[in-house]
Amino acid sequence: MDILNLQFTSSEAEEQLIIFSVGNEEYGLDVLRVQEIIRHVTPTKIPHAPDFVEGVINFRGDVIPTICLRKRFGLPPRTDHEFTVIIVIEMNGKIVGLTVDQVSDILNIPAEQIQVTPELSARPETQYLKAMGKLGNRLILILDLDKIMSINSQEQLEQIIAETNPSVTQD
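Request: output the structure for the sequence above.
Response:
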C-alpha cells in the first residue's frame, strides 16, 4: 500500500486520520500534521534525554528528535522492527519523529462517530488522548500531538540537542 501517494480529501463533517498501531491499540492523528512517513532508522542516543526520547535522526539535513510511543505509553520495547516506521510530524511548532509499530490506514471518520474524552485526558498517563473514533467495531484513540511531550521536556530536549550538535540552532 503506497500510503504517501494517496490524495487527502475530506469534508468538514469528517476528520481524516493516519491510523497506526502501538502495541494492541489503534491510534489516529490528523493527516495535516504529518510531514512524511519513513522507514525506521536507529536514532543516535542523546544523554540525559527523557526516557521516551529514542534519540535524534537526520531528516532531510535537519536533526530531529524521535519519540518512541511504546515507551511514552508505558509498553515494553519491541525487538522486531519489520513494520516499524517513523511518522514525521509538526508538534508544538517543531518537527519531531514518532516511532510506531505500524501504519495501517488513512481513514475519514464522521464527526458524529468521534467522542471527546475530557474525563480521560485530565489524568497524566492519558493526557495525550484527545478523542475516540468509532468505526464499525474498531475503536481508534485520537492523539493530541501537542501533549505527547510536555513543554518542559521539549525545552530540555532542545537544549540537549543544541549542546550535542552545535550546528543545530534553536528558534
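The chain has one domain: 13-164.
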